[in-house]
Amino acid sequence: MMPNGQFPSGQGISASSLKRRSAVLEFLGNVWSNRKGKAGALIFIAMILIAVLGRIFSPYSPYDTSFGIYLPPSAAHLLGTNYVGEDVMSEFLYGTGVSLMVGFIVAIAAMAIGTLVGITAGYMGSVTDDVLMRLVDILLVIPGFPLLVILSAYLPPTIWSTILILSVLSWPFNSRIIRSQTLSLKRRSFVLASRLSGLSSFRIIIRDLIPNVLPIIFINSIFIVVGAIVAQAGLAFFGLGNINSINWGTMLYWFETEDAIIFKAWWWLLPPGFGIMALGIGANLLSNAVSETSSRIRRY
Amino acid sequence: MLTLRYVRRRVLYLVLTLFVAISINFFLPRLIPGNPAITVLLTRYGNHITPQELRLVESQLNLSGTLWQQYVGYMVALFHGNLGVSFYFYPASVSSIIAGALPWTLFLLGSATVISVILGVSIASFIGWRLGGKTDSMVSTISISLQSLPVFWLGLILQIVFGLMVVINGVGLFPVAHAFSTNVTVGPNLAFIASVLYHSAIPILTLVLISFPGFALLMRNTISTIINEDYVMMARAKGLKTWRLKKMYINKNARLPVATSVALAFGNIVGGAFLIEEVFSYKGIGWYLYTAVTTSDFPLIDGIFLVITITVVIANFIVDLLYSFLDPRVMLE
To answer: Which residues contact B55 (CB under 8 A, 6 or more apart)?
Structure first.
């Protein structure tokens, strides 16, 4: 079999940008054609639709306190009302937007930092590699939640502080995986071919390495989306970040703080948890789909 | 079996990690413009604090002098176990609060970790032999769903179910708050131990439900790779009994990645335990951290971060050394 038969990016210089895009499309197509992949993707698409369109279709303003408190679900309030009489359905629809925004921004930032560090370490090797990987080891071993808490306690309580802290702490695992992939890839013939043909390191990274680590970056990023949403919810539950922003985490914070448990207000407690669980299941389905289909992609 | 080179490398790594954690603790308050701890004190007691008292507080927090003098003062205090005085629980010292609370957290953490590992490994040895079957997909789906839940959310649900919905003679089946009831004398007596176990049942159950799937899924996936290894096929071909193959060849090897992951998972379970302590008003260091956060008690926040980080890092170090006995190959790296 041709060593770079599946990877046109190594074949030539002129057409590579076009073919790189087709590698991405081929990858997404493979995931979509897998049964689990489609289910996972649909969960994410549904959640993104709720996040984007939720505000438009929300029945009331989430700040409207003119209803009775702790009303159980009814036709007027599909998910009941909370401790000050806000409509939980509207709160949830708004909150989904903020929670998903946190998840996706953090995932994109972690992907960028993790890829940069991982590829740099793997490609440069020697001292650069040693220093960066020791840093990663240390960040991975310091318990994450206490570190998040102490950083959040010192930074101003806004949602952007939370996003910044989560981004800075989410990349190490990503970078480690990408480094090990880079290490194994840089010895392969098509990378050697590019190097011999006189391409600069930077161009080799962009053209040859990035398309090859795509499946792994994709899956990690999906898990970081979910992980960041859960971490933000945990911080909010601890009273950190902006507790007046409406998101899944602050819904649970106010549930706990206002002792809504005494009213058994399950209609207020369940939606954020099910939202997070749905995303978690979606991420796992996508991950299974990628590992089932990526043998087709990564057969060099 | 331990080589000196391996131990030396692990110790170096341990010292480096502790140094980073201590540095975060030292620099964080000093990097933020207008030290938050002083700001809190001034807004709270601004009218009553004399300049002398303020200077006293500053020297206690090692905030006077050059950065180098501050660093030396901080290190000296640290090696004397002096982490400052709590604002909120004044005049209690941070180290005395942590010393009182840490055993409770370690109890939750330790029991939850041990139970999760045993449960995860048992489940994986069971389904690992039935890969692709109905049981496998059912157990995997349940594990994945459980793993995706926020731990404090599950805690709240179990609190409602066991404390408020399942009621016998007007009392919930399980207590949903505090580490023990008020009518027992604290000490090594049977009533106290029973009360502690009874109160910790639901918090530990919550942590186990969130943590065991990780171990189960990891070992299941390892088994699915090992089954295709050459040495397994060889063992099969020479007619080895199935139970022997499973016990000696597959499960033994599949447990290795679980052992490595325990150390990393321990750090994650710490976060879960902190949140669970808040839900169940269980007065371990997570509960104190929550209280410190809501009352801007910065010395207590700093102290708890430092102590829990040191605990986890040392636990990791010990696991690393023990692991080299389990799998001598790691020392060859």
So the answer is: B64
